[in-house]
Amino acid sequence: MAKELRIGMIGYGFMGRTHSNAYKRLNDFFPVKHRPVLKAVCARDPKKAQAFADIWGYERVETDWRKVVNAPDIDLIDIGSPNDTHFEIAIAAAKAGKMVLCEKPLAMDVKQAELMVKAVEKAKVPNMVWFNYRRVPAIALAKQIVDEGRIGRPFHYRATYLQDWTIAEDVPQGGAGLWRLDSKVAGSGVTGDLLAHSIDTAMWINGAITRVVAKTETFVKKRKHQVSGKMESVGIDDACMFLAEFANGSMGTFESTRYARGRKNFNTFELNGADGSVYFDLEEPEYLQYFEYMQKQSGKKIESHLTGWRKIHTTNPEHPYMKHYWVPGTCIGYEHTFLNALADFVAGVESGKPVQPDFRNALQTQKVCDAVIKSAKTSKWVTTGVKL
User: Fold this and answer.
1) What's the gap between Cα 218 and its chain centre?
2) Could you report the per-residue pLDDT of 17-48, keeping only the tens digit for each?
3) Which pLDDT does position 2 carry in this prediction?
4) Is 152 left (phi over 0), alpha (psi -120 to 50) or beta?
5) pLDDT category of residue 358 using cuts at 50, 70 and 90
6) Could you tell me the domains of the chain?
7) Rounded Cα distance, 380 and 213, in Å
8) How far apart are CA 78 and CA 98, in angstroms?
9) What is the dihedral of CA 320, 322, 328, 329, to 10 degrees?
10) Which pTM value belongs to this model?
11) End-to-end CA distance of the chain
12) Partner of 310 at 20 to 30 A CA spacing, among 166, 222, 263, 272?
């Protein structure tokens, strides 16, 4: 008989929906022993929270997250609320002995993140940060290819994450839907919101980023604030570019903006090595492109007479996660990345082998984000202090 995993969800926005979908579908696709039960959803607007609860099947609604954190009928706290709430909720949840799942970025800054790591490790509670792109089958396959040594010595890593939804000057900042444009709530702009994903993926695949030098830009300096109703200065970065050095000696370039007209969620990376390369584009998430320069025959590497890019359709059962879904040639979607992440987390709880990225791992990404922001202010190279 399945053991209940009783969920307390903090937040009912975009991430609340993706996470809730994962909880509802977990046992349909993955043979884990726990069965999620949607106990409570918490948000400041009780009417909207109730509407969310009715749609997704939460048993009750709360407006005070402390009641959810301290409720005896809840095992896991899922923090899907704005960035400035992560710290206090995570600390309290750990002290209450709850499992803690948290949206990215982990915190507003490294100082907060370090205290969050201490809290979950002192309490010895399972924890994870929702860097869901690790769970795209094609990206997981790229990681496998690199770990197998198929690209050889790495030389270059380049990543882009482009959107266009804030180009209009009349887009306000703040409030429930646009808190990502308010630096007091978000902490940073594209650096924490978009590049945090790129950085996490890069260090997962290619190792620690040790130094960065960055440039950021805020194109619209003032926007009307939805809460105050006044024109206020914009503190977030609309665009960010940075150069990176990896511990393995390779070089990296990262670019992110919300001012790339026509790009809605354009997330790409390419890693070039001595023996091959990998390339991924989220607009074609079912594909991984792989270039093989050297082949192995009889245990020796030889130059291939079939050199060229392969476009691998990652839908076969031998590809990461795909054995749990459909027949080869049929695709899964964005929502399944959260389902895959949840399945890995629950399997880790059951096996006693913590899943990654946990809070300590996400702290390393926070260190790079903070170093990028610092470098943009000083126009100097900044050491990240990352330890993987």
Assistant:
1) 23
2) 999 999 999 999 999 999 999 999 999 999 99
3) 83
4) left
5) very high
6) 3-131 (3.40.50.720), 133-383 (3.30.360.10)
7) 6
8) 10
9) -80
10) 0.96
11) 38
12) 263
| 225, 203 contact by CB (below 8 A) | no
Strand duo 127-129 + 287-292: pairing: unpaired
Share of the chain above pLDDT 90, in %: 93
CA-CA distance, 132 to 104, in Å (whole number)? 9
pLDDT in tens, 166-198: 999 999 999 888 999 999 999 999 999 999 999
What is the C-alpha separation between 81 and 90, in angstroms, rounded? 11
Q: Which helix (H) or strand (E) holds 196?
A: helix 196-206
| Dist. CA 92–CA 376, nearest whole Å | 33
Instruction: Give the number of other Cβ atoms within 10 Å of residue 124's Cβ.
Output: 9
Hey, CA dihedral for 301, 305, 310, 312, is it positive or negative?
negative
Q: Could you report the per-residue pLDDT of 264-304, keeping only the tens digit for each?
A: 999 999 999 999 999 999 999 999 999 998 776 777 777 76
Q: Could you give the angle at the alpha carbon of 158 between the alpha carbons of 156 and 163, nearest 5°?
A: 180
DSSP 18: H
**Strand ranges (DSSP E) for 226-371?**
231-233, 239-246, 251-257, 266-273, 276-281, 287-292, 294-297, 300-303, 309-313
Taking CA atoms, 5 is separated from 91, 201, 324, 334, 350, in Å, by 20, 28, 21, 24, 11
